[in-house]
Design goal:
The chain is of the alpha+beta class. The protein is built from 5 helices and 7 strands; from the N terminus they run E-H-H-E-E-E-H-E-H-E-E-H. 37% of the residues lie in helices and 30% in strands. A 7-stranded mixed beta sheet has the order 1-2-3-4-5-7-6, with helices on both faces.
């Protein structure tokens, strides 16, 4: 495995297919917003590549004070092969000098996707991310905040999310 990142715009059809398949409707903004924020230099929207093979997507956004991995998805046929862990490793290294976080659905034994949530949180823990006790809501969906050990405040979380969504969407999304 030898992954690298490319501009998501080079792989729009594959990105769109994976984005729609990987994230439930209530957890994803319109994909056009991701590209728009990238064009504005408010986000880094990347295709994850292994040589010439498309294996996933990643979107990182924030400010010079705080960054978040807002979206990470690996092609279903490529899961369990170490791609997600390698992406996390590279992103943690890239943003090692700034507070960095990601959000995941919290454990909920009653949720339809309870097993997926457990697996996802284990995956993040295995790759050095821990829950910090900060719960947030985006568009009515609850999330737990995880970091690779860097302290993070609610204000920093809000700063990163506001940088991505902008003033108008931010007030509609964050409660």
């Amino acid at each position: 495995m030898s992954i690298h990142f490319e501009d998501a715009r080079k792989h729009k059809e594959k990105i769109k297919r994976l984005f729609l398949a990987a994230f439930p409707r209530d957890e994803r903004p319109p994909i056009g917003l991701l590209y728009w924020r990238q064009r504005q230099k408010k986000a880094s929207f990347r295709a994850v590549m292994d040589g010439e093979k498309f294996v996933g997507l990643a979107l990182i956004c924030g400010t010079e004070n705080v960054q978040t991995l807002m979206f990470l998805a690996i092609e279903e046929t490529c899961r369990g092969m170490g791609y997600g862990g390698e992406v996390l490793k590279r992103v943690k290294e890239e943003y090692r000098d700034v507070p960095f976080f990601l959000c995941a659905e919290p454990l909920d034994e009653q949720a339809e996707n309870a097993k997926e949530r457990i697996d996802r949180l284990r995956f993040y823990a295995h790759n050095g991310f821990t829950e910090i006790g900060l719960m947030v809501q985006e568009a009515g969906v609850p999330y737990t905040v995880l970091t690779p050990g860097t302290p993070l405040s609610r204000a920093q979380y809000l700063e990163a999310v506001k940088a991505f969504f902008g003033k108008v969407y931010y007030h509609l999304i964050i409660k």
